[in-house]
Amino acid sequence: MSSQPTASGLAGRLPFHYGWAVVVAGTVAIFACLGMGRFALGMLLPSMGQSLSLSRSEMGWISTGNFIGYMAAVTMGGRMVARFGARRTIVMGLCLVGLSMILVSRAQGVLQVMILYVLTGYGSGATNVPVLGLIAHWFGRRLRGRAAGFVVIGSGFAIMVSGALVPAINAAHGAEGWRLSWLVIGTMVLVAAVIDLAVLRNHPSELGLEPVSGSAAPPAAGPVPVCAPAPPMVKRRIIAHLGALYAVFGFTYVIYATFIVTTLVQERGFPESTAGWFWSWIGLLSLASGPVFGGLSDRIGRGKGLMIVFAFQATAYLLVALPLPEPFLYLSIGLFGLVVWSIPSIMAAAVGDYLGPEQAASAFGTITVPFALGQISGPALAGRMADSWGSFSGSFAMAAVVAAAGIVGAALLPASRKH
What we know:
The chain is mainly alpha-helical. The chain is built from 18 helices and no strands. Helix 11 runs antiparallel to helix 16 and helix 12 (272-286) packs parallel to helix 15 (326-339).
């Protein structure tokens, strides 16, 4: 017997629209694929590097390998969703993330870790793109940004969890504690895959539902206006524009996320424990970033929302670049944490606005390619600049200038279409 009637019956008994259950499952997916699959690495590298005698360059290549795998997945995201459906693609991606991380716990050298972490990155990309693409199917334009905002904060929860879990395991198990950390985290990702398999659905129609519209009043009588498809040239320009803005975000945020703790410890003289506490605060503050600014973009428009977020980020980067007193560092961390996951949520909503729900997953996969390229190139260029200048000040200043260019680019976005 098909499980469809059971799922449909459950949706009818819930005190809320099933779309919000999809949001919760999406948050779990992002927690696992990006939060644990990518952002936990910073906590794992020190002890793993010492155990495997990794150089700083080798540590960097491990991180780069993850981004390469991620980019490979997002280039095929639309085709994977078209062939398997979003739900199956997400579950398969999470299984790949979880299994590859479990295998890293048995690795004996840098080459094994790098190959496995490329697979982790591939699974992360195969999960992230269709998860955010689902939002365009389940939510109308009025709530699309807010819903996507709740999904992307999964990474913030993961930063907080890994920041507490990994040091505790290392303290209990010594030099080889990193292996147990990889095993535990990989197992958590597999549990997330089971949750998403049970909860996610590709489209509201599978449960006999309509998308969550967020309408303040019932529609007026008369024929419903249909949004005519945008011409191909217009679609290409929109995708290129959004992709460029997403690349700006990928290039700049990863510089800050990669090097802020190192800067605080090595250049500003903070104890490692204090710098780690700051990182935990970024994770905590980030829980509001997606819902608040995604919801704001629902009301004021995607372009204006992006302008505000890029302004926050540019200011955060500049405050670290300049030789300012210590309180300005706290302000920088606060500004960055408040908006760190905002742009992915706005972008996920924007592709649905401009191109329609049916093309949202494919379009989001397309604009994620330049985002991934930005993530790959940002840390490499910033690290090279730091070696030449003797500090990361120039790197953060560069990030501030690029983010300021993002403000200008966001201002030039055309008004979004209504889907």
